[in-house]
Amino acid sequence: MTFFTDLHLRMTRPISRLDDDFLANLLAKVDVVREMANDSDAVILGGDIFDRPDVPHGVVVQAVRAFGKFDVPIYTVIGNHDVFGYQGATVESSAMGVLLESGVVRRLDSVNIKGVNLYGLHAYDKTLWSVPEDNKETASILVAHKLLTNISSPGLRAHLLSDVAAETNADAILSGDIHSPHHEELDGVLFANPGSMARLSIVDRNRQPQAAEITVDDSGVISCEFIPIATRPAESLFDLKGYSSRIASEERARTFSKTYAQAIISVKGEAHKIAALLAEFLDKNNVDGALAEVVKAYYDRAEGEQLGEMKD
Ligand SMILES: [Mn+2]
């Protein structure tokens, strides 16, 4: 089986990108996967086929055309970007609904492919990692559009692979949603996410788009290999100059608010005096309203940083 995820088809290019043929580039990757998948029993998608549930009709037409060329059945779970507001009931009124209705892509709920049971866990489903126990003698794969990660990060509403491994009775979990890849085996469970096929953000610039080739041997052992999908060099696809100037201006803003925070700290307990001075300064210098708002925002931020430092 061939698995890939998070295609994020859209008409316009993301702000971080330079290629005006962004959609064509994505669809070219689908073509590469199609040739790869000639010997596969099925193509499995991890969701977020569309970047929005209401992409322009032209995007849907091109998606139907691209997936319609496959000779093998295609199954997908539904991603959060494929529906409105995490509501499963909105699939039918979304681009995904049209794609499913066209019949070229089928929705993955549960299917047996050459003796392997596959189950879909959609973005809007209650997060349950268990699969039905019947037919447990055959291999079972759960395909999930859920935040699954091997990187522990406080505050991130994600599921750690090690926690899920302890909970699930599936033999493998293929996932989309998180755009960076993982591939590991924990407690006898194979986890694989080849990463998003679309590289929407500048942080993706050095990440290789890839698909996964999933094989199940006669004794039901599942293995996975990531296959890179060729792309043009990052310099021709990503707006690296625009990115460095954005970084530079953020750096200036940080320095400015840091300096401000230090000034406030130096007059401990008298921050209101600085606020008054600032207001007076803005007034005397005829600073226009918009700029005054910006300066005030810096002031608030500086005050926030002061409170943060006081906590430490
Ligand atoms: Mn996504």
Fold and architecture overview:
By secondary structure, the protein is α/β, with parallel strands linked by helices. Helices cover 35% and strands 20% of the residues. It has 8 helices and 14 strands. The protein has helices at residues 22-36, 57-68, 95-102, 161-167, 234-237, 240-266, 271-284, 289-311; strands at residues 2-4, 43-45, 74-76, 106-107, 110-113, 116-121, 140-146, 148-149, 159-160, 172-177, 182-186, 189-193, 210-216, 222-228. A 6-stranded mixed β-sheet has the order 4-3-2-1-13-14, with no helix packed on it. Strand 13 and strand 14 (222-228) form a beta hairpin. Helix 1 packs parallel to helix 2. The protein is elongated and about 80 Å long.
Name the beta content range: 15-25%
CATH class of the largest domain: Alpha Beta
Bound molecule kinds, no repeats: manganese (II) ion
Tell me the strand order in the biggest sheet. Answer: 4-3-2-1-13-14
**From N to C, what is the helix and strand string?**
EHEHEHEEEEEEHEEEEEHHHH
Number of strands: 14
Major beta-sheet overview: 6 strands, mixed
- State Rg: 24 Å
Terminal Cα span: 52 Å
Domain module count: 2
CATH topology tier name of the largest domain = Purple Acid Phosphatase, chain A, domain 2
Number of helices: 8
Mean pLDDT: 89
Low-confidence runs: none
The structural class is alpha/beta
